UniProtKB/TrEMBL annotation:
Residues 6-58 form the DUF1707 domain. This is DUF1707 domain-containing protein. The keyword Iron does not apply. Coiled coil: none annotated. It comes from [Mycobacterium] zoologicum.
Length: 136
């Protein structure tokens, strides 16, 4: 019976590197051991070589996310989105005020703030939707 050697690509190496990083942050690896394993992960050519790097680690425990940590990340993402929205609204009001003062003093009524408000608004909307999409 022959053993099939399966080669790995960058996605598998990156997935293993992410697991090693999680193991390091959770205290399962020391810094020198993490650096050594990380280097070997990006040099690995086969599935067996990658498997050997995480064989002694509690992979299931590393993969599992702590519900409190997840809730904290979601709360931080929502808070960041609310801050972004608040700054956007404040700057929009400021631009409209500048437009109004200059329009009244010069007599030119072209509403130029629409362009930065619209452009930045797209970013704000995508930021407001992002916590719902990627923090599940």
């Amino acid at each position: 019976m022959t053993t099939t050697v399966v080669r790995v690509g960058d996605p598998e190496r990156e997935r293993t590197a992410a697991r090693l990083g999680q193991a390091f942050t959770q205290g399962y690896l020391s810094m020198p051991e993490y650096e050594t394993r990380l280097g070997r992960a990006f040099e690995a050519q086969t599935v067996v070589a990658l498997g050997d790097l995480v064989a002694d680690l509690p992979v299931e425990r590393i993969r599992r996310q702590d519900p409190q940590r997840r809730a904290a990340r979601q709360a931080a993402a929502r808070r960041g989105a609310r801050i972004h929205l608040g700054v956007y609204l404040a700057v929009s009001v400021l631009m409209v005020a500048i437009w109004l003062v200059t329009a009244m003093s010069v007599g030119q009524w072209y509403f130029w703030p629409v362009w930065p408000i619209f452009g930045w608004g797209i970013g704000v909307v995508s930021h407001m939707l992002a916590p719902k999409n990627y923090l599940r």
